[in-house]
From TrEMBL:
Keywords from the named record: ANK repeat, Coiled coil, Repeat
Keyword Disulfide bond: no
SUPFAM superfamilies the UniProt entry points to: Ankyrin repeat
Origin species: Callorhinchus milii
Name listed for the protein in its UniProt record: Ankyrin repeat domain 42
Matches recorded under PANTHER family: ANK_REP_REGION DOMAIN-CONTAINING PROTEIN, ANKYRIN REPEAT DOMAIN-CONTAINING PROTEIN 42
SMART domains with a match to the protein in the record: ANK
Length: 485
């Protein structure tokens, strides 16, 4: 640690210190040493800046100054302080996508159910700004995925309205309800249709109770998602709904023997599909009554093995069905993203474009390495990061020493530590098992003695019977009458 201290002194003297006018500027710059000096000089750890009305902790959450945030939490900064808009540090971390700061706040007991002046929790704000990884940090802490703001909007409403597909998928995974209505009777599908977020709308339809239920849902004004899409000129949504309605009016009969290859592709039965095509019974591009080929069926259901085999057999995936859709269009409509990729394309470049959570690039986009900090946040160079790690390690050693001293004092005062209780419990359990085994051993010993006694009695009986048998035998073959003694 002496070496570390020397390095710190050398690096500190080599780097030109900046002059900060306030504790807030030091925090925004991520200078924990200057922060500590200012507090020791009398600056309040919860001082509110006169312009933005942020406390140092809130500025740390805003700028992603993780080391400063830890220092402030260690020294008792108030996590319940709010801005004029009702934002706590957790709200600000959610808005900025500072997942590392959010994790630190969660570990220190931040209230993630606190609401701002609009009734929004941090999960609302993380969703609205599309910070999927920060939202995941919040949901993993155990908070409800369906909180409501003053307008009756849940997190899924925010995700649908702002086109945050990644957040929408995450919320559904954590139990969010897609049939919740706001104070105007809108379900999330209404909002996605109104704003023209096609991929979110497709996902909501696929995850809903049924296509009919989602498309037929009416708000308090009696409007369906299609009505809203038409009123706000969202042609992409209108066309997609028309294609869905066409399929509803021309349902596929899975048991239709006239198109067995289509049935096989729909079910993902590659063995039967291969037999039908290779034997020449059907053509690989055969159309059914709706103009769909087996490729359409396999793509819509996401059966990748069938789809890959059809492509290898020369199936034309550019053929359009009677609804004007190619196989790729059908795969997009049913959110079969792997099938879309296999057919040679990605999702449309819409404003609500977010990668699927199962795609490794999803977390690359949101900074899984530690934070989704924006480009304007604090960026420390290699030397500053090394110094920060050294300071953190010194804190670990300091707290470990203090912990050992406190444990020793507690024991001397007659206290029983948790590890001691656990060890005592293990010893009691071990003693109990030993007693049970000893009792079982004693039982087996007594049982053995009884069996040996029975064996001795049996041997005596056998000996007696043998004597009787000998008396019944005579040397010349004659029989001596009389009972055995």
């Amino acid at each position: 640690m002496a070496v570390c201290g020397a390095l710190l002194c050398a690096n500190g003297s080599a780097r030109k210190k900046k002059s900060f006018g306030s504790i807030h500027e030091a925090v925004k710059a991520g200078d924990v040493e200057e922060l500590e000096l200012m507090v020791k000089s009398g600056a309040s750890i919860n001082e509110v800046d006169p312009v933005h009305k942020f406390t140092p902790l809130q500025w740390a959450a805003h700028s992603g100054s993780l080391e400063c945030l830890h220092w402030l939490l260690w020294h008792g900064a108030d996590m319940t302080d709010v801005t004029p808009r009702g934002w706590t540090a957790a709200h600000i971390a959610a808005i900025r996508g500072q997942d590392a700061c959010m994790q630190a706040l969660v570990m220190n007991g931040a209230n993630l159910t606190a609401k701002d002046d609009r009734g929004c929790t941090p999960s609302h704000l993380a969703t609205a700004h599309g910070h999927s990884y920060t939202l995941q940090t919040i949901l993993r802490s155990g908070v409800d995925a369906n909180p409501s703001d003053k307008s009756g909007w849940r997190c899924v409403h925010y995700a649908a309205f702002h086109g945050r597909l990644g957040c929408l998928q995450l919320l559904v995974k954590w139990g969010a309800h897609l049939s919740e209505v706001d104070q105007n009777g809108n379900i999330p599908a209404h909002l996605a249709a109104m704003e023209g977020h096609l991929n979110c709308f497709k996902f909501l339809v696929c995850q809903g109770v049924s296509v009919t239920h989602v498309l037929g849902a009416r708000n308090d004004q009696g409007e369906t998602p299609k009505d809203l899409a038409q009123r706000f000129y969202k042609d992409n949504i209108v066309q997609d709904i028309m294609a869905m309605q066409y399929e509803q009016n021309h349902p596929d009969n899975q048991e239709n023997v006239a198109f067995p290859a289509h049935v096989s592709a729909f079910k993902g039965d590659l063995k039967t599909l291969r037999q039908l095509v290779e034997s020449g019974v059907i053509n690989v591009n055969e159309r059914d009554d709706g103009g769909s080929t087996p490729t359409h069926k396999a793509a819509g259901q996401g059966h990748l093995e069938c789809l890959q085999w059809l492509i290898e057999m020369g199936a034309d995936h550019n053929i359009k069905n009677d609804a004007g859709e190619t196989a790729k269009d059908v795969a997009k409509r049913f959110s079969q993203l792997a099938a879309v990729k296999l057919l040679g394309g990605g999702l449309d470049d819409n404003s609500d474009e977010e990668l699927n959570k199962d795609d490794p690039s999803f977390f690359d986009q949101h900074g899984v390495e530690g934070s989704t900090d924006s480009q304007g946040d604090v960026n420390l160079n290699a030397s500053q990061k090394r110094e920060a790690r050294m300071r953190a390690y010194q804190k670990i050693e300091q707290f470990e020493h203090l912990l050992e001293v406190a444990k020793s004092n507690y024991k001397q005062l007659g206290g029983l530590l948790e590890e001691d209780q656990l060890r005592q419990k293990e010893e009691n359990e071990r003693d109990r098992m030993i007693q049970e085994l000893q009792a079982q051993l004693e039982y087996e010993r007594i049982r053995r003695e009884k069996l040996e006694c029975q064996l001795d009695d049996s041997r005596a009986e056998i000996s007696h019977l043998n004597q009787c048998l000998e008396k019944l035998k005579v040397s010349d073959g004659s029989v001596v009458s009389g009972p055995c003694p």
